[in-house]
Structure formats: C-alpha cells, structure tokens
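Quick one:
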Amino acid sequence: MNLHYLNIKDAISKLPNSGRVFIQGAAATPSHLLKELMNQSARFQNLELMHLHTMGEAPYTNPKYSKNFKVTNFFVGANMRNFLDYERIDYMPCFLSEIPSVLRKGPRKPDVALIHVSPPDRHGFCTLGTSVDVTRAAIDTAPLIIAQVNPKMPRVHGDGVLHVSEINVLVEVDCSLPESQLPGLNSAEEQIGKNIAELIDDGATLQMGIGSIPNAVLKFLTNHKDLGMHTEMWSDGALELIERGVINNRKKRVHPHKNVSTFLYGTKKLYDFIDDNPAVIQLDVAYVNNPAVIARNPRVTAINSAVEVDLTGQVCADSIGSHIISGVGGQIDFIIGASLSEKGKPIIAMTSRTHHQVPRIVTALKSGAGVVTTRANIHFIVTEYGSADLFGLTINERAKALIRIAHPDDRALLEEEWATLKKK
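Output:
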C-alpha cells in the first residue's frame, strides 16, 4: 500500500484562510497539527476552531490572535475556563448526544477536521483511537480531513474505524498520549464512594466518568458481581474492575460482553489494554448517549456530579454563577436513560462543601447559574452524609431530605432560610 505523507507545514497550508475547523479532543488532541496551525496563524482571518475539551495549552486563546481565530467550545476544559469572553471565545450549550447533529446538519458544519489516528493496518484502516465522541460526525461532514498518524495511538474497535482513502492529508508523528493518573481521595470522597456503592446492585450497568468521586465509587465495588459498562467515558479506575472480572458485561442487553464508551482518558496501561481489544468498543456519542439506547440496559446506574443543588432539587453542573466551567455534557442524557431503565438509578454525587468550604446544598442557586438537571429529572442526591431519593417527593419533602445530607454546620441556616422562603 503506497501512502503519501506530507510534512506538517504543507499539510496545514491546505487550510482555508477562514471557515470552520473541527479539532479532535481529550487524549487524541492533535497537538502537532495545532502547533503548526499557530506557526501559520498570521494568514488566518477569523478562523473558527470548534472542539470539546482539548489537552495541553491552547495558545489561540491569546488576545493577540483576536483577528486570526475565534473559538466555539462544545465543552469548556481547564485550558479554556479563564479565557471565555462569550464573544471571541464562546461556549455552545448542547446535550452531548445532540452535538453530532449540530455538526452533520446544523449550523456548524466543519470545513476541515484535524484528527489524530492510529496507523493504517494491512487493509488500510486507521482508527480514531481514544476519542470517537463527536469526531465521527465531523469526519463524516468535513470536506478536508487532515490526520496526524501516530504509532502510539491505540487501535480501537467500533465507529472510529476509517480507511486512509477517507483522509485527505496524512502527517507522520511519534508522540506519547496525554495521561491522567488516578487522583488521591480525601475522607469525604471515600465516604461518598461507600454511600453510592451501597446503591449499586449486582448486574447493574454503570455510567461514570473520571475524577475523585467516580474513582471512590469504583474502589468500593470490588465485591460486586456481573457489572456492565455503557458510559460516555472511562479510565483506569474501571480498568481495575475489568481485570478483576467485576465488570464483565454479562447482564447487559445492548452490546453484552463489550465495554461501551465514546472516549477514554487515562494512563499508558489503559491505552495498552484497549489496543486492538475486541472487548472494548468506542461508538458515536449520538448513539452511546441516546437515552432510548441507554434505557434498554438493566439497572443503569448513572453517576454524575454537581456544582450546587438547591432545596427543590435543581442541579447546577456547568457553571459557578454565570461563569461557565465545563458544559452540559452527557449528564441529562444519562439521567433520563437511567430513569427509564428497568430498576435504574440516576445519581448526582458531590461533597457537601467545596474545597473552600462553600456549601453545595443551597436554598437557591447562585445568580446566573445554569440548571443542567431540572427538579423534575432528579432522583438520588448523594453526599458524604448520606443519600436522598427525591423521586416522588414534594418540594417541602425534598428540602427536608436534602438538609439531612447537607454539611452539619449548614443545616440550621438552611432550615431557617427554607422556613422564610415558604412564607413568601
């Protein structure tokens, strides 16, 4: 098979001076292509860069590039939070399951897709590796696809498989993928893990991401049996349970015996495990996060986080007040999917206070806070002080249940504020 690779300078020179460019994200962020994009920045005029969260620095956020680039975030990562101005660097609220539609037929069809793939096999097929997510939609739509081909990108089965004939420009690179180590746990996070583990049945299908609380939950599931995984993403915490046989996907009805996700982020051990592993499939997020698909599995237990929750059950998960810090993501996709699943359990988990001792259970959300999960969608709220099942409870019953799992030093004030609010 004769493949023609370009040097990276010539590859990026094929981009138009303006238009829309989709950038693959997470561990598959095409960092070499982005570096050359910045080298050629002077010729671009208001080029729109679109992505979920990317890894590494994002130099195009610098104000000196204000005439060259604008950025549309589908999810706001750590490298973007301090640069949002809602003008040049903006955020598009959307359920993760619907972003592929925005790319395929909506107002943001890309002109170019910059991607990061595994090398072609003997049949000429590459894969999108660690991140299929919304990238499948981008490469199905963009007329120009430029790929950095990396021998360290794992070959992953599923919707991320594409033939080299579908790629317009190939660039050879050889670089390690970004890695995320398992975070340490404090006592509150460990207790939340125990509280959630008690809610998880044998045979449950799990959705959880990465971070302290998901890892705390996974730590206390070692004695569970026949768990499954259908999630938008997973990491090394889940890998430990797969290796122990705790997660074996035997009870799932959708893709039994398969670990289903849409992107992954972790250590080299994880990347080595998923490489050409038929038990791991990465699928288009429009499918993985479709509540109707999620609901077909039994006992779906969806574990998501919150910035704060008010006493009626409204969940703010994407902002601190009006300042966006993440995104809608897949929370509501899985909250709805789990609530429709047979014996499913949608769970919102959080410490009762932030690291700065700010209460997370509040009488009213901060001014400008976004409601990601409405009071009508909510079921379980879990803190280190217990769990509250709000499904079927009245407003007053919810308030009392949430005050019981708030930080002990916050409960008296919450009761006082709730009593005052009821009189208005």
